Amino acid sequence: MEIADWRDTLSASCHFWVGPGGRYFAEPGLALTFSGELALDLNVAICHAPGTAAVGRALAGVVDTGSPGLVMLAGPALGAARVLSDAGWIPVSAMPFMVRSISPSDPDERVRRLGMAGLDELRLLFEKAFGMPSRVAQLALPNVAASDAPDADPDVAVWGLYEGDEMVSGVATVKVGDSICVWSMSTHPARQQRGYGRRLLVGVLAHAANEGARRCLLLATPSGDALYRSMGFTVMEHWQIWSRRRWVLV
User: Where in the sequence of the chain do the CATH 3.40.630.30 domains occur?
Assistant: First the structure.
């Protein structure tokens, strides 16, 4: 599998946060995922196709929504970043795109796939960990991820790590082909720096590999970077994140 395919795979996994008022579009090298809400991180265009036309389409896709959003550039698209700067956009950050092969292993019974009750608990944890409004947490962790939801998506899942009856860490995953993509991993602020994130991810990847996944793909946040590297994830490249100045400098 080539890195361009991995980029498209991770882009395709974003579809789960579209929401009832949003939209999703994807083709090789370009994906648009818009939640339909005023949530900067949930209105995203990902472009790795070469040329100014492709980056221009990514830019137009965000602008046309009328909502704050991000454009992520990777691979050949980085050569056309001037399209964004000419439009007054600024680079916000660069995130490592990481990959790790996985293989079947014994699951950890403390790591559980969540139904609706657990999903509500994870949303509260997510709000505390990221200081995020509840409506945004509901978009980032939608009902379709719950195993017992009437409209459950079998490829989308949410997971919790428990100490006794308390959820201490959680994550969302999306299966695309034979890859598992990781999003929104969080640990309760009072429980951080205790190894819970590692234990959670090890358990989740065991479940994924036992169900046929061969690799894990993710974009690493600064808080998760060291953990992923220590677990054997390889940095394939860095994705540039662009947005409008007035959306990010507040």
Answer: 111-213
Where does 111-213 sit in CATH, by number? 3.40.630.30
Give the confidence band of 47 by pLDDT, cuts at 50, 70, 90.
very high
Residue 186 backbone dihedrals phi, psi, to 5 degrees: -150, 150
Q: And the tokens for 34? A: 């818009």
Instruction: Supply the DSSP symbol for 21.
Output: T
CA distances from 225 to 53, 75, 186, 219, 240 (A): 32, 20, 13, 9, 16
Q: In this structure, are residues 73 and 48 in contact, taking their beta carbons and an 8 Å threshold?
A: yes
Output the six-digit token pair for 95. Answer: 């995130």
Mean pLDDT on 185-205: 86
The overall pTM is greater than 0.90: yes
Q: What number of residues does the chain have?
A: 250
